[in-house]
Amino acid sequence: MRAFKIAFAGATALVCLLGFAFPLPHPHFWWQSVPVFDALFALLGCLLILLLAKMLRLLGLRKKEETYD
Q1: What is the pTM of this model?
Q2: Could you report the per-residue pLDDT of 27-69, keeping only the tens digit for each?
Q3: Does residue 39 contact residue 13 with C-beta atoms inside 8 Å?
């Protein structure tokens, strides 16, 4: 699992560096002129979905194992 985290962090850093190296030539919206905004926005969205799922699990949306027996 540690190797996966290191590989994921390295891939994220590489994408960010490439975003700075090759910006969009003609941005249509203001956020497209910010380097790596799309990658960081997607990462933030994924993290928020994960946190929301964990919170819902803690609130009791998970069924007990003997529910369907």
Answers
A1: 0.63
A2: 899 988 888 888 889 989 999 999 999 998 888 776 667 766 6
A3: no
Query: Which backbone phi and psi does 20 adopt, to 5 degrees?
Result: -75, -35
Distance between CA atoms of residues 37 and 20, nearest Å: 10
Give residue 29's identity as a one-letter amino acid code: F
Question: Which distant-in-sequence residues (6+ apart) come within 8 Å of 53 by Cβ?
Answer: none
What pLDDT sits at residue 51?
96
Backbone angles phi, psi at 29, to 5 degrees: -125, 160
CB 39 within 8 A of CB 15: yes
In contact, 39 and 51? CB cutoff 8 Å: no
